[in-house]
Amino acid sequence: MKLTSLIIRNILHRKFLSALTVSTVAITVGLIIFLILCQESVEKGAAKGYGPFDLVIGAEGSETQLVLNTFYHVGAPTGNIPHDLLQSLRTNAQVDEAYAMTTGDNYNGYPIVGMDAGYFETRYGDQRLAEGNLYQHLGEVVVGAHVANSLHIEIGDTFKGGHGLVEEAHHSFDADEAEEEEGHDEHDAFLYKVVGILPALHTPDDRAVFTTIDYAWAVHEESEHKEITAVLIKPRSIGGIQTIKQEFDQLHGIQAAFTSKAIADVLDVVDRGTEIIALVTALCILLAAASILLSLTAAANERKKDVGLLRLIGKSKGYIFTIFIGEGLVIIAAGLIIGIGIGHLGGYLFQDLLFHYTGIQIDASLVSILHLYVIAGALVVGVLSMIIPSYRMYRLQPLQLFKS
Fold first, then answer.
1. What stretches pass through the bilayer (predicted)?
2. Residue 318 confidence (pLDDT)
């Protein structure tokens, strides 16, 4: 009988134990691969989440909160700042581009963001919309690709927003129907019309609704005392960032935040959480190694007579050793293949959920050097687990094996 056929037959002879060992390896590898996909995707998504805007001006408070709300549309804004700051920033010699942002309202849980339309060209270049045109007038909106797909929005749809960043039960209306609605607050009296749909940008902007910055003043009837949520700054040079920050940090109630630093702080927190998960993963790896060890030990105890017969008919110690090592490698290989598939499937199933809440999407097709480390690590752990039972069978004499 060929060596390969013998190895497969031996594995199938212990179906339950073999399946249990393969499952343990697969779950462990799947968890590690899923964590790798999450970590790599979060780091890449965080890095491109703010584009060329290295500085943001907003109300005094948490820098991390300001950056997350401004670029990732997560959480609440730190407050409002005077609209007059925008002009002083645009005339600043260190500033290349400055765009004001207003926020605070939502449509079915997705943030409504007031932003100068020029933001899109600065951020994404001369990229065409998937449908329609950019907004030009009060009440016109452009929706992100994720919002359009999730809510089945089309060009020409109209809707009413809700105050705050929580989900409200606001649905699309025709213009005639909207006029018949009796509003209970200022939001019920203000109607938005979809004039454009953004292409899939693969950034947090996919999950936002964009309109003119004056929407907030119109909705909340603030025609005189105009405020904005933040100003996004693209500096002329890296050296100018510190100058801008020092100048505006001195103003009362105003802060200037380094975007990259705030994101780095968030990633540090994520890394600390990953360390805890890594500890759990390490325990799973030990469990998988123990499972392989027990599986092969049980196989060795069950097949002492078979091994004795093989030795008596002339098979070498190396042949016996190879059988046991081969069984372990087949089990590990099966667990690796299934586990890698589970990890990427998990990334695919959870990518929309993560994107919905954070604006960062898991790249389920991502393959990195860490995959090779996982494969190599699994093989090393597996081989070490095989050595003890395999070596025991290698040392025993054929007559002793047969008698036992």
1. 16-37, 276-298, 319-346, 366-388
2. 67
Percentage of the chain exceeding pLDDT 90: 26
pLDDT at 98 exceeding the cut of 90 = yes
End-to-end CA distance of the chain: 24
Name the residue ranges covered by the structural domains of the chain. Answer: 3-46+266-403, 55-237
Cβ pair 24, 286 in contact under 8 A: no
Structure tokens at 399: 């007559």
> In angstroms, rounded to a whole number, what is the distance separating the alpha carbons of residues 193 and 195?
6
pTM for this structure? 0.71
C-beta of residue 142 within 8 angstroms of C-beta of residue 135: yes
Residue 293: which residues within 8 A CB-CB, separation 6 or more?
385, 386, 388, 389
Closest CA to 144 of 130, 157, 127, 161: 130
The continuous run of DSSP H or E covering 56 comes out as strand 55-59
Q: What is the pLDDT of residues 198-227, one digit of tens each?
A: 999 888 899 999 999 988 888 876 666 788
Q: Which token pair is 138?
A: 């009060």
Q: Within a 10 A sphere around the Cβ of 45, how many other Cβ atoms?
A: 21
